[in-house]
Design a protein that fits this description.
Elements (H helix, E strand, L loop, with lengths): L5 E5 L6 H14 L4 E5 H14 L2 H10 L2 E7 L8 H12 L4 E6 L6 H5 L2 H12 L2 E5 L6 H11 L4 H9 L2
Parallel strand pairs: 1-4, 1-5, 2-3, 3-4
Helix pairs in contact: 2-3, 3-4, 4-6
Length: 168
């Protein structure tokens, strides 16, 4: 299917994790594969809604059958208590069945705390890391903040425009 069927992009905000994950998803789609992008928080919310509406089985089916599942920003927000079990089901059913790209700003050692369930986090990591490439992205400064600063200091940039407006 893919040369790398699992990948984890770890790094601080603004280092390009999302950009890389979306580029890989777009390339997979261009190559004829299916891809689904969900933030970790939205995915957990999807499970809550599916549980409430009786459509959990269909949701799991949809998550398993897609060729590439991109889960964005694991660890950025507090997840509900059932999140670990829901994510474990996804990772267990996709194990050796489909590609997953995961982005996070939290080190793998923190996943037990992030998910609130050390046993489930260990099981997820065991299945995921078996075939995963873990890529640590480093950056002293966010690309977003770098771009903002560049715009502000460029001739005619935001800083120049503000000073022109506020000048008497």
């Amino acid at each position: 299917m893919f040369v790398v069927d699992k990948g984890c992009l770890i790094g601080p905000p603004g280092t390009g994790k999302t950009h890389i994950a979306l580029a890989l998803a777009c390339n997979a789609i261009a190559a004829g594969y299916t891809a689904l992008y969900r933030s970790a928080f939205d995915l957990v919310q999807d499970f809550r809604e599916a549980e409430a509406t009786g459509t959990r089985k269909q949701l799991v089916h949809d998550l398993v059958r897609v060729d590439l599942l991109v889960i964005e920003d694991l660890g950025m927000r507090q997840l509900p208590p059932t999140a670990a079990e829901d994510l474990l089901e996804v990772f267990t059913r996709r194990y050796e069945q489909g590609a997953i790209i995961l982005t996070t700003n939290r080190p793998l050692e923190d996943w037990g705390q992030v998910l609130g369930d050390t046993a489930a986090a260990g099981a997820i990591l065991d299945r995921f890391l078996h075939h995963a490439e873990v890529i640590q992205l480093a950056g002293a400064r966010s690309y977003r903040m770098h771009e903002r600063q560049r715009r502000r200091t460029a001739p005619g940039g935001a800083a120049a425009q503000v000073s022109q407006v506020s000048a008497p």
